[in-house]
Write a sequence for this structure.
């Protein structure tokens, strides 16, 4: 007997028929003698639709009320799923995030989990029931208010419950068969990866791979939770995200996969005085504006000008406040101007084997240059190479690199559902 956490995303519970199908799968796991905890997302695109509704009544809705609104999506799917499972003769009980003991800090819209006390979930399992928990939500002890964990937060709920309950595995069900060498919607010949380390998965998620959310992977890595990403539409084995122990050797492919990200913009600060301390001051302004910056590039100043240009990338949603903050301090820092570019895309190639293999960057840049793709920024880690290009050629760049590194699989990847929204 195992304790299994199963998380079903919005596209797996998009309508009544899908909920029934998922219920059968859960009942089957339960009948096989396992203890089953289920985490659900809101049905289909419910969360986006609720956000649109909020926008329609208020340009700047309060975080508290937004969280009240959005958490209702998961409440619908958890109750329906519990009903569907009971209908199959298996006892099931649904719990909101707060009932399941998901305690968070008080930051509405992107709360962090500070404690997980799933007493009622444990009691439901002890009583032989399947426990269903609403994903993406928690509550703060101080304010007594309901919080959400940020978009895609149900993955984190599932991993956190798996850690707190000491589950054997955390299964994340989605609309593709696992983690692929590239987004199968962009590269139909992408190959499913059987096993990936959480270190590589973190790089892929940070670089824009949407199949797993970065905070869930971080949590799993910290707490040693094994994640199994698989399809709720097929019986195929998916991808295991593992945490090799210190000293344990794993056979590492040179390249794991490619991720792309169109959700970032580029800001260039032009004519920055090339003296010690300017970068520190600039990025303090940026940090105080609340931005998570990613790539940074500074060009060298020529000796006769004594000024440099500094470019960095950041999420589109944070660009406005950073631009305003920089503009307000222009005279004080002494730079010439700020340029803003919202038509960039990022592509990252990830693989733990890069650490010990030469020639990866040469092949990567050659593939892009053969396709006539111009590179605007470059950054690397031990196991990743990332570049910025024009947004409209990102998909082509992904395909070109995928091909250059022979990542193609034998058959076309199947995308079972979802609108990709
Ligand atoms: N329903 C939430 C969202 O769409 C949480 C989740 O799906 O994980 O972001
Ligand atoms: Mg969703």
């Amino acid at each position: 007997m195992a304790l299994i956490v199963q998380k079903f995303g919005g596209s797996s519970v998009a309508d009544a028929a899908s909920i029934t199908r998922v219920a059968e799968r859960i009942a089957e796991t339960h009948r096989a003698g396992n203890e089953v905890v289920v985490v659900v997302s809101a049905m289909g695109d419910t969360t986006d639709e609720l956000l649109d509704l909020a926008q329609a009544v208020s340009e700047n809705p309060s975080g508290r009320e937004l969280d009240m609104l959005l958490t209702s999506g998961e409440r619908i799917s958890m109750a329906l799923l519990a009903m569907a499972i009971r209908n199959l003769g298996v006892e099931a009980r649904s719990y909101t995030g707060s009932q399941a003991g998901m305690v968070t800090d008080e930051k509405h819209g992107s709360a962090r989990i500070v404690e997980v006390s799933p007493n009622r979930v444990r009691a439901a399992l002890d009583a032989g029931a399947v426990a269903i928990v609403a994903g993406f939500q928690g509550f703060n002890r101080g304010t007594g208010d309901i919080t959400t964990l940020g978009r895609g937060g149900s993955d984190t709920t599932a991993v956190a419950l798996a850690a707190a309950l000491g589950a054997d595995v955390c299964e994340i069900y989605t609309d593709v068969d696992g983690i692929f060498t590239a987004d199968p919607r962009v590269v139909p010949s992408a190959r499913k990866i059987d096993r990936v380390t959480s270190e590589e998965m973190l790089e892929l998620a940070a670089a824009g791979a949407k199949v797993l959310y970065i905070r869930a992977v971080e949590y799993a890595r910290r707490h040693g939770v094994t994640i199994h990403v698989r399809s709720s539409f097929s019986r195929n084995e998916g991808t295991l995200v593992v945490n090799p122990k210190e000293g344990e050797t794993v056979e590492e492919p040179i390249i794991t996969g490619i991720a792309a990200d169109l959700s970032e913009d580029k800001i260039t600060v032009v004519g920055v005085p090339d003296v010690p301390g300017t970068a520190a001051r600039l990025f303090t302004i940026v940090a105080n504006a609340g931005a998570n910056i990613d790539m940074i590039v500074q060009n060298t100043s020529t000796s006769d000008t004594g000024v440099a240009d500094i470019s960095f990338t950041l999420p589109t949603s944070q660009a406005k406040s950073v631009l305003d903050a920089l503009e307000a301090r222009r005279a004080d820092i002494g730079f010439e101007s700020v340029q803003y570019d919202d038509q960039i895309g990022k592509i990252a190639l990830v693989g733990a084997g890069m650490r010990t293999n030469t020639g990866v960057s040469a092949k990567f840049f050659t593939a892009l240059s053969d396709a006539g793709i111009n590179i605007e920024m470059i950054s690397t880690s031990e196991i990743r190479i990332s570049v910025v290009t024009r947004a409209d050629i990102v998909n082509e760049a992904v395909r070109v690199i995928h091909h250059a590194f022979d990542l193609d699989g034998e058959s076309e990847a199947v995308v079972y559902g979802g609108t990709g929204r």
Observations:
- The mean pLDDT is 93.
- Residues 9-10, 41-42, 47, 73, 135-136, 151-154 surround aspartic acid (ligand 1) (CB under 6 Å).
- The chain is about 35% helix and 25% strand.
- The two ends are 38 Å apart (CA to CA).
